[in-house]
Write a structure and sequence with these properties.
Elements lengths: L15 H11 L3 E2 L9 E2 L1 H20 L3 E2 L5 E3 H4 L3 H7 L5 E5 L2 E9 L4 H11 L8 E10 L14 E11 L2 H22 L5 E4 L11 E8 L5 E11 L1 H6 L2 E3 L5 E3 L1 E7 L1 H12 L16 E5 L6 H17 L4 E3 L6 H10 L4 E5 L1 H6 L1 E6 L4 E6 L3 H26 L1 E3 L3 H10 L3 E6 L3 H11 L2 E7 L19 E7 L2
Parallel strand pairs: 3-7, 15-16, 15-17, 20-21
Antiparallel strand pairs: 1-2, 4-6, 5-6, 7-8, 8-14, 9-10, 9-22, 10-11, 11-14, 12-13, 17-18, 18-19, 21-23, 22-23
The protein binds zinc ion.
The site of zinc ion has 7 residues, from loops.
C-alpha cells in the first residue's frame, strides 16, 4: 500500500482489453515477468481467490460422493498412446520431457495435458467387481498445453489450474446421471455463489472432447462480447474403458466395461471471469463467497479519540471474526481516502468505517462495493445486516450480468442478418442449422473465427426452417459466437 496510483483505470465498457491488462497488474493479481510464454505468476491477491474457488467446488464434489486424489504430473508414453482419438486430439499440444540429468530418456515422458491416460491404467487395477463402483475421484491440479495461439493471462495459458473429476459407473444410465450431477454442481456454484450467468451448451460432434460421446460446456460472455468456456463435462461411455481395459464383474457374473465420465472445472478461467464480469472502472468486485477479505474495517481518526476508535474497531473485528467472516482491520498509517481507494481496487465487497460520530450514535458507516453506496447501519444489527447484504450483493452482481447476457443473444433469420450481427454486435447468435461441419467452416471463414458453440442443453428449441448457411432443412437451433 501507499504505492497505489490514483490514475483512473481504462474505461471497461469502451476498452475492455486495456482495462483487463491494467487491472490484473494494478490489483497485484499476476506478475507477467516470469519469462516463459504462457506461464505466469499468481500473486497472493489472486491465489487466494483461486483457493476459495477451489474450496467451493471441492466441497460440492465431496458432498456428492467424490474423493480427492493426486496423480503424477508426468505420463508415460505407453499410457498416452492407448486411446487413438485422444492422441489425435492432444498430441499437438503436449510438452515432452526427453532428458533427465545428463542423459536422454529411453522413453520420453509427457506433462499431463489432462489426466485420462494417467489415471485410467490404474483404474483398471482398482476396479474388479460391481462392488467397486461407482469410482468417483478428482484432483485439483495444473495441466500443461502447448498453446500456439496468442496467450492471455488466466484465459489462455500453457499452464492452468483446474479440477478434473474422473468417474466410472456400472451402467450407462448412471453415467448419464453423473453428467447431470456435474452440471448441477457447476450451476450451483456459478449461479448461487459467484453470480456468473452462462449458457450450458451441448457441443457439436466435431467439437467434442477427444474420445467423448457427448460434451457439455459452460460458456460465459465477456464484456468484449466474446465467449469463454469455463467448465465441461463429458460422457465418455466405453471409449476409454475399452482402451484401458477397465472391466468389472457384474452381479450376474458377466464381465462388463465401465461407463465413464469426466468433468473439468477451469479454475483459472473462472477467476478471469470473476475479474472481467463483475469488475468496474474502480477495480475488482469479488463475490462475497470467494473474497479473500469479505469485510474491511477502516478507522476514521480524530485527534484525542484514537484509542476509543481503535477499541471499537477491534470489538467489531472480533465480532465478525467470531462469526467466521474473513475480515481485516486496516490500522495502517495511510489516510482513510487512500485506504478506501485501495480496498475498492481490490474488490472487497463490504467496508465498515468507524469514527467518533458513529460511536456516539451507535451506528457504523457501511459501504457496498458493488453499488458504491454508503449508508449507516445500527451497530446492534451488524451481523444481521451483513448476512442480508451478502445475499443482496450477489443478487445485484448476478442480475447485472444476466441482463448483459440476455441483451447479447440475438436471432438471425438469414445469412445476411447473421453476418451483420457478427460484424457489428458480437455475443451469441442463434441460428437454424443443419448440424453440418461444412457449414460451421463457412461460418468460421466468413466471420473471421465465429464458432458453432452448440445447442442449448435442457431446453428444447424447435427448428422451423432451413439452415441459414446451406438452405438444407435445419436440424437444430445452435448458438454461434466468437470464442477466446
Ligand atoms: Zn447447413
Amino acid at each position: 500500500m501507499g504505492e497505489d496510483t490514483e490514475i483512473p483505470l481504462p474505461d471497461k465498457e469502451q476498452n475492455f482489453n486495456d482495462w483487463y491488462n491494467e487491472i490484473i497488474l494494478r490489483a497485484e493479481l499476476v506478475d507477467l515477468r516470469y519469462g516463459v510464454k504462457g506461464f505466469i505468476v499468481y500473486r497472493p491477491n489472486l491465489a487466494t481467490v483461486l483457493k476459495q474457488t477451489y474450496r467451493l467446488f471441492e466441497d460440492a464434489l465431496d458432498e456428492h460422493g467424490h474423493s480427492i486424489c493426486n496423480f503424477p504430473v508426468v505420463i508415460p508414453l505407453e499410457f498416452f498412446q492407448k486411446e487413438a482419438e485422444h492422441i489425435k486430439g492432444f498430441s499437438g499440444e503436449v510438452f515432452w520431457i526427453t532428458k533427465a540429468g545428463d542423459s536422454e530418456l529411453d522413453k520420453p515422458l509427457l506433462l499431463r495435458p489432462t489426466s485420462e491416460t494417467a489415471m485410467y491404467p490404474l483404474y483398471a487395477y482398482w476396479i474388479r467387481s460391481y462392488r467397486d463402483l461407482p469410482l468417483k475421484l478428482y484432483q485439483s491440479n495444473t495441466v500443461y498445453r502447448y498453446e500456439t495461439k496468442a496467450t492471455k493471462p488466466l484465459i489462455r495459458g500453457r499452464e492452468f489450474y483446474w479440477i478434473e473429476a474422473h468417474d466410472v459407473h456400472r451402467t450407462f444410465e448412471d453415467a448419464v446421471n453423473q453428467v447431470k450431477e456435474d452440471m448441477e454442481i457447476t450451476i450451483d456454484v456459478l449461479h448461487n455463489q459467484l453470480g456468473i450467468p452462462f449458457l450450458l451448451m451441448e457441443r457439436p460432434s466435431w467439437d467434442r472432447f477427444a474420445g467423448a460421446e457427448h460434451s457439455f460446456a459452460f460458456d460465459v460472455l465477456f464484456p468484449d462480447k466474446e465467449v469463454l468456456q469455463i467448465a465441461t463435462t463429458h460422457l465418455l461411455g466405453e471409449t476409454f474403458s475399452r482402451a484401458f481395459d477397465i472391466m468389472f464383474e457384474d452381479e450376474d457374473g458377466t464381465k462388463k466395461y465401465g461407463q465413464q465420465t469426466c468433468f473439468g472445472i477451469g479454475i483459472s478461467r473462472i477467476a478471469a471471469t470473476i475479474i472481467s464480469m463483475h469488475g468496474d472502472n474502480y477495480g475488482l468486485i469479488i463475490p462475497f463467497h470467494v473474497a479473500p477479505i469479505q469485510i474491511i474495517i477502516v478507522p476514521i481518526p480524530k485527534k484525542g479519540k484514537s484509542e476509543l476508535i481503535l477499541e471499537k474497531c477491534e470489538e467489531v473485528y472480533q465480532k465478525l471474526k467470531d462469526k467466521g467472516y474473513r475480515v481485516k482491520l486496516d490500522n495502517s498509517e495511510n489516510r482513510p481516502g487512500a485506504k478506501f481507494y485501495h480496498w475498492e481496487l481490490l474488490g472487497v465487497p463490504i467496508r465498515l468505517e468507524i469514527g467518533p460520530k458513529d460511536i456516539e450514535n451507535g451506528v457504523i458507516t457501511t459501504f457496498r462495493r458493488d453499488k458504491r453506496e454508503r449508508f449507516q447501519i445500527k451497530e446492534s444489527q451488524l451481523i444481521k445486516t451483513i448476512e442480508q447484504l451478502r445475499g443482496e450483493i450477489l443478487n445485484e452482481l448476478r442480475s447485472r450480468r444476466e441482463k448483459d447476457l440476455e441483451e447479447n443473444i440475438r436471432e438471425a433469420k438469414n445469412k445476411e442478418e447473421f453476418l451483420e450481427i457478427a460484424k457489428n454486435k458480437g455475443g451469441f447468435i442463434k441460428i437454424e442449422f443443419c448440424d453440418g461441419n461444412k457449414c460451421a467452416e463457412v461460418i468460421k471463414e466468413e466471420t473471421g473465427g465465429y464458432e458453432v458453440r452448440g445447442k442449448l442443453f435442457g431446453k428444447e428449441e424447435k427448428t422451423m426452417g432451413n439452415c441459414i448457411i446451406c438452405g438444407e432443412k435445419a436440424k437444430s437451433i445452435v448458438y454461434v459466437a466468437k470464442a477466446y
